[in-house]
Design goal:
The chain has 3 helices and 2 strands; from the N terminus they run H-E-E-H-H. The chain is mostly helical. The chain has a single domain, classed as Aspartate Aminotransferase, domain 1 (Alpha-Beta Complex). It has a two-stranded antiparallel sheet with strand order 1-2. A hairpin with a 6-residue loop joins strand 1 and strand 2. Helix 1 packs parallel to helix 3 and helix 2 packs across helix 3. The longest helix has 24 residues.
């Protein structure tokens, strides 16, 4: 899953703004170093995942998750990341109402 999603991000030239890293059972989202942009990306991706009926504020892969579920997540990111790229291209600033904020962390 990490490799597939990162490959999509690289192909769309979003890798500096969005990628997954860490160990396969519990990778982390990376949303870039600009706090406003990171908050926008986090919020955008969460809203789009919810549209696909995927609730994933963090990633914690378990034995209950089979290839079917992992493929569904990757397919969702195939849909989401091109939309994200377009949103980042047309936006002048990244401040949005009701954006998601990191919890208990000073930085993303």
């Amino acid at each position: 899953m990490i490799q597939n999603i990162n490959a999509i991000s690289k192909k769309l030239e979003l890798f500096d703004d969005f990628k997954l890293f860490g160990l396969p059972p519990s990778p982390y989202f990376y949303f870039g170093s600009n706090p406003d942009k990171a908050s926008f990306i986090r919020t955008f991706i969460s809203k789009e995942l919810i549209k696909d009926k995927i609730l994933m504020p963090w990633i914690s892969v378990s034995y209950a998750h089979k290839n079917k579920e992992l493929k569904r997540v990757v397919e969702s990111f195939k849909r989401i990341l091109p939309k994200l790229k377009e949103e980042l291209r047309i936006r002048k600033n990244y401040k949005i109402k009701n954006s998601l904020k990191p919890v208990f962390r000073k930085y993303n």
